[in-house]
Amino acid sequence: MPMDITALQAAARAIIFIPERYELVMEDNTPKGYDEKARTFIWEDPEHEDNRIEVSLSLGSGQLMRLQIERERDHVLEEIYPIEQAIEAAKRFMIQHHPDNEVLTYIHSKTKRNDYDIEFRAEVGGLPLPNSGCDIRLDLNLNIVHYKAELFLGEELPVWPAKIISAEAAKQRIVQDLHIQPIITTLYPSVYDMEGDEDQHCLVYEPIQGRRKIDAITGEPLHSLQHDLLPPSVPIIQAEHGELNRENLHAINPILPPSHGLADASSDEDSSLIQFWEAQLGIDTERYVLDKPRGDDQNLILLYFATSDINEDEEDRSATDPLSVDVYFERRWGTALRNLQAAFMIHIDKSTGSLEAYHQKQDSRNEEVRFTREQCWERAELFLRRFFPSYAKYLQLEVKWDGEDGGTDSEQGGDEGEAEPHDREFFHMPLYIDQYRVRLERVNISVSTITGEVLLYRGVSMKKIRELEACKFEAGVSPESALARYVAQLDVSLNWFDYYDDNTVHYQLIYDPVCKRRVEAEGNHTEYVLEFIDAMSGELIWSKT
Question: What is the pTM assigned to this prediction?
């Protein structure tokens, strides 16, 4: 039976001291509208908008689910408390508020920046159960500033298996399917352990299937070979001029944007660029109004709103509960939320004048699907022909897996069989420089199956393409040598893995692959994870955790 709302507010106020000047600005169920689990209260300091206290209590039990305190920090004491005292303070709070406190015997702690982070977990066989217990953060004065409760276990703890395979057997099962593929990636000093402070484009070997989880009882992988892989892709055979023009939708001549200076672009130049792209994309400026252009010296971002949506219905707004989630979000993030409702969004790269991204909001109307996937691909290719003329040189088209053998569909844009009709088709095209895929770079297009219009386009930077082409990547280390260097660093660790079935949590004992190293310096330690092998030098490339 749900808790009484009035009782929940009183309980929320008793959790933590709330200064008198703080005002209650939100009181509503969360998440809102579907599977509501908590009653959330937010108080804010009217004198300092960044000072806020958030308390969420379970609608069913009244238990504290989340506490977040944001405020200007007090002066830190000259003597920093040892981590053991932070753990004791966190433990007292945990015992008071978490119903599973008696079984939360696993404790992990670390000092991070100006906080102590403490995790409490239930454990079986000396191993913590993921997503059990709670996370607590304290400031350096040992004040609780964050609490998040995970699921409540009750007495449903897993049983340790009678027999499991050895760690070496698990490692060999991982190695059995492990292979290496060359890709192009960009290394960032803030992410990777590398020399220098400049970003670097590199050809690297990426381990494939290097992170497969192995069932500790059966010795077999938890998932199929395809589970952690990107779909295969095939070269794009550029459509003939006549094929694209047969419906006479648009002129298919490639669009060449006006030349544009990067560093010294004036407002007049921006204005000409705006007019150019309005004309090319067919935006009716009588029906849609351009909001104030955003961006910087490198980017120009344009948002268009329907004239019929500009004047909002004030009566409907005034009728809404002032403490509701919707009103709170509108007050705090109204501009950002409004931007999501733009009829058109256009992102222009000023250095090239080219289209980087485009989004059109589809009308919410219930009409029948009229375009097949093949016809939608024709529309997508028409768009590419106009705004990314060299698409066939740089892009490949992702296709669906064909069974467990890793095969592909034989056609680029084939129909998807007897699947339920949907209102748009998606096409994903990874970027290739020469024969190498570029990691995390691809073009995405979605096309309406109702109108045939392109609703979404996310491109790749032509500036980056030119930079990558100038690098002239060439491997100096064989895949076999790179694979051996990776395997030499590979180890496994025994862990519990959780999954859900019919809203019930289940735990499974697994071996996780581990490729880490730990560096001690001045009493602190940093952990790194092996991500790649440099394809030119064979050096190991580690990311910071």
Answer: 0.84
